[in-house]
């Protein structure tokens, strides 16, 4: 086996009620915070709760509320100005992956010179990040424990990550109670992302026994509770499974990387303005179909999903995994075809070309050439 390094410096506070520790955690990081979140966190009262917890420990929290889109370079520049004007010494990302990734970029760039676009284009990160505290309110992206911020350059219509080891959050606060009021549609799309990330991290060519342990548990937890959270949003046990599942998938993927679904999802998402989790869920069964002949681990995925029965051949187990994933995503309302979402056959060559440089694509268990990517996209059209 090749040698590898597992790195995850984030302290992780988990469980029901973990959010109540926010004041203590913030006080260990700084005195002047900037809270980055979306509109929902304001409306639900979560922002007020965060501010009063911070205040109880003499930490002030400024506020940057992002507009309802995935973060782009202009948004990063605007939020950065808030952080610098407030002389902030700690950044908090509260919400889904978009809020956490935006906060991560702000924390990471606060001390650096130059525009966000320069770092997006590959300029080296040459200074430390501000302390970052991530608080997921969805169960999906795992962004609470990753070192990358997925951003969009709307001019060039490119979506990819800035990543650096210094960008890992100082703290992640993962409290399943914060996800109780997530509506079914968001539960489905974020949960599809978590399922996809668990399976892609597990089968990535960058997987190791260390990441396998995390990914296997993630697949089992998400597999048993994704549908339950979709139909019964107030089921706290199922919400807890999903909170741990998406966290474990994030821990696995931050070291193992992902696969072809994520390679294709970014160009599709930015071009057609599609929610990341929806695209991932849509593409996952088609990509698993492609991978199955060269991905022995799918047999284990069938066991983890509870669909293996005695006497099944290896081939039947792999097929059972693919079909169960397809059925689960259908049951939670994930669309099954790209065409009705506006994707056109004449655009596919562009999507293929934009997918090929992706690091995720290169970590797919079955190698892909341009014609393979096109074949998967055509089958999903
Ligand atoms: Fe994802």
What topology does this entry show?
Blueprint: E1 11-14, H1 22-27, E2 32-37, H2 39-43, H3 46-55, E3 60-65, H4 73-85, E4 90-95, H5 97-109, H6 116-120, E5 132-136, E6 148-153, E7 158-163, E8 171-174, H7 184-203, H8 209-231, H9 236-256, H10 260-272, H11 276-291, H12 297-304, H13 314-331, H14 348-355, H15 359-362, H16 370-380
Parallel strand pairs: 1-8, 2-3, 2-4, 4-5, 5-8
Antiparallel strand pairs: 6-7
Helix pairs in contact: 4-5, 7-8, 7-9, 7-11, 8-9, 10-11, 10-14, 11-13, 11-16, 12-13, 14-16
This protein binds fe (ii) ion.
The site of fe (ii) ion has 6 residues, from α7 and α11.
CATH architecture of the largest domain: Up-down Bundle
Which class best fits the helix and strand makeup?
alpha/beta
CATH topology name of the largest domain: Dehydroquinate synthase-like, alpha domain
What's the average pLDDT? 97
Number of structural units classed as domains:
2
- Shape by Cα distribution: globular
CATH level 4 superfamily of the largest domain: Dehydroquinate synthase-like - alpha domain
Offer a few descriptive terms.
alpha/beta, Rossmann fold, Dehydroquinate synthase-like, alpha domain, 2 domains, six-stranded parallel sheet, two-stranded antiparallel sheet, 16 helices, 8 strands, 11% strand, globular
């Amino acid at each position: 086996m090749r040698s590898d390094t597992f790195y995850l410096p984030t302290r992780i506070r988990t469980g029901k009620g973990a959010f109540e520790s926010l004041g203590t955690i913030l006080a260990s990081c700084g005195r002047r915070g900037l809270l980055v979140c979306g509109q929902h966190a304001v409306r639900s009262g979560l922002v007020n709760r965060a501010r009063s917890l911070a205040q109880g420990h003499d930490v002030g929290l400024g506020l940057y509320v992002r507009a309802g889109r995935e973060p782009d370079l202009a948004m990063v520049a605007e939020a950065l100005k808030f952080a610098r004007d407030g002389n902030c010494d700690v950044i908090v990302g509260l919400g889904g992956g978009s809020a956490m990734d935006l906060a991560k970029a702000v924390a990471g760039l606060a001390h650096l010179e130059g525009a966000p676009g320069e770092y997006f284009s590959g300029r080296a990160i040459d200074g430390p990040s501000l302390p970052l505290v991530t608080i997921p309110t969805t169960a999906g992206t795992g962004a609470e424990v990753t070192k990358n911020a997925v951003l969009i350059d709307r001019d060039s219509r490119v979506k990819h990550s800035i990543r650096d080891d210094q960008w890992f959050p100082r703290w992640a606060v993962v409290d399943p109670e914060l996800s109780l009021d997530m509506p079914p549609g968001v539960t489905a799309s974020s949960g599809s992302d978590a399922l996809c990330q668990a399976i892609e991290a597990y089968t990535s060519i960058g997987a190791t026994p260390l990441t396998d342990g995390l990914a296997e548990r993630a697949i089992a937890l998400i597999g048993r509770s994704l549908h339950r959270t979709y139909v019964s949003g107030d089921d706290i046990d199922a919400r807890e499974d999903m909170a741990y599942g998406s966290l474990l998938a994030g821990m696995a993927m931050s070291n193992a990387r992902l696969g072809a679904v994520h390679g294709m999802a970014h160009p599709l998402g930015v071009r057609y303005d599609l929610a990341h989790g929806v695209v991932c869920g849509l593409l996952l069964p088609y990509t698993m179909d492609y991978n199955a002949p060269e991905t022995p681990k799918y047999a284990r995925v069938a066991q983890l999903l509870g669909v293996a029965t005695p006497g099944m051949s290896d081939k039947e187990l792999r097929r059972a995994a693919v079909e169960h994933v397809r059925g689960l995503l259908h049951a939670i309302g994930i669309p099954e075809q790209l065409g009705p979402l506006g994707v056109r056959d004449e655009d596919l060559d562009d999507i293929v070309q934009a997918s090929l440089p992706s690091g995720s694509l290169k970590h797919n268990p079955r190698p892909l050439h341009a014609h393979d990517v096109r074949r998967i996209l055509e089958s999903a059209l």
